[in-house]
């Protein structure tokens, strides 16, 4: 649903990358087991990060084994499986379902409508398991939609809704770690909303679509403002993240939060410089 919570492969060791891929494949297998083949197709790197994070924090008994799957039948690869995979898979389905629903409503996409129908049963099962969590997520998305339809210029209000949503997703249990996980997720969600708006602005302007940064772009310090806000938001996330007693796979998690989430920003700056050179 987000697409920004990814690794920076260039700064990750081969051993850590192999672990990350094993988590990714393990989550894929869990999606298939719980929600069928179509559920498997919703797999995201965002929820792979969640899987690694919860595994590191709660340290459930882990099964690491090679295997094959229908998507890659010729070459065996490792799968990491543990008790937190089910939750990560369920949240993956929730976010995928809402993404399809939003695309169907906003773009009147027949494909998105078909995907929404295909995921309805899986979403209903997850909703029965986590009714309060799903209600929070739905509420955040509904308020975001209302603000965007009203062409709100309140970037903070919009970012806060994505923050609340991701804070709820990261909160695996209501235990001693819940406040820290929720706070880290809220800051990361605010970062993601602003990064997405910043990333989409050129295309939104071309197509005449709403973007909360449309008016702000006229400010002479617009670029510095966006960079400073993004830095502040992700700093809030990492500040909370570092409070967690994480040891296992900490290099992967830090790679994502200190480097990977900035990948799209780096691409935007690179494209802009290339455009200026050729312009």
Describe what you observe in this structure.
- The model has no long low-confidence stretch (mean pLDDT 92).
- With 279 residues, the chain is mainly α.
- The radius of gyration is 19 Å and the shape is globular.
- Strands 1-2 form a two-stranded antiparallel ribbon.
- The protein contains ten helices and two strands, in the order ααββαααααααα.
- The protein starts with 13 loop residues before the first helix and ends with a helix.
Give me the secondary-structure category.
mainly alpha
What would you call the shape? globular
What is the number of strand segments? 2
How many DSSP H or I helices?
10
Biggest sheet strand order reads: 1-2
Oligomer: single chain
Gyration radius from CA atoms, angstroms: 19 Å
How far apart are the first and last residues' alpha carbons, in Å?
A: 34 Å
- Model regions low in confidence, pLDDT < 50 over at least 5 residues: none
Fraction of residues in H or I helices: 55-70%
**H-E order:** HHEEHHHHHHHH
Strand proportion: under 5%
């Amino acid at each position: 649903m987000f697409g920004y919570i990814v690794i920076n492969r260039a700064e990750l060791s081969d051993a850590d990358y192999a672990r990350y891929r094993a988590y990714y494949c393990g989550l894929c297998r869990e999606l298939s087991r719980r929600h069928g083949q179509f559920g498997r197709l919703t797999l995201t790197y965002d929820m792979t990060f969640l899987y690694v994070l919860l595994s590191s924090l709660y340290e459930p008994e882990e099964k690491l084994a090679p295997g094959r799957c229908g998507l890659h039948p010729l070459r065996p690869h490792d799968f990491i499986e543990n008790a937190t995979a089910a939750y990560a898979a369920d949240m993956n389905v929730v976010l995928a379902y809402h993404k399809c629903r939003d695309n169907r409503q906003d773009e009147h996409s027949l494909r998105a409508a078909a995907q929404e129908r295909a995921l309805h049963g899986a979403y209903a099962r997850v909703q029965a398991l986590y009714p309060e969590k799903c209600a929070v997520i739905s509420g955040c998305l509904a308020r975001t939609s209302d603000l965007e339809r009203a062409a709100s210029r309140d970037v903070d209000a919009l970012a806060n809704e994505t923050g609340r949503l991701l804070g709820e997703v990261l909160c695996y249990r209501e235990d001693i770690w819940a406040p820290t996980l929720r706070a880290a997720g809220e800051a990361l969600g605010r970062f993601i909303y602003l990064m997405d708006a910043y990333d989409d602005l050129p295309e939104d302007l071309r197509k005449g679509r709403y973007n909360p940064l449309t008016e702000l772009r006229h400010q002479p310090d617009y670029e510095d403002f966006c960079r400073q806000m993004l830095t502040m938001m992700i700093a809030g996330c990492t500040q909370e993240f570092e409070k967690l007693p994480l040891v296992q796979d900490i290099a992967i998690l830090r790679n994502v939060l200190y480097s990977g989430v900035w990948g799209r920003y780096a691409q935007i700056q690179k494209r802009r410089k290339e455009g200026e050179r050729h312009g």
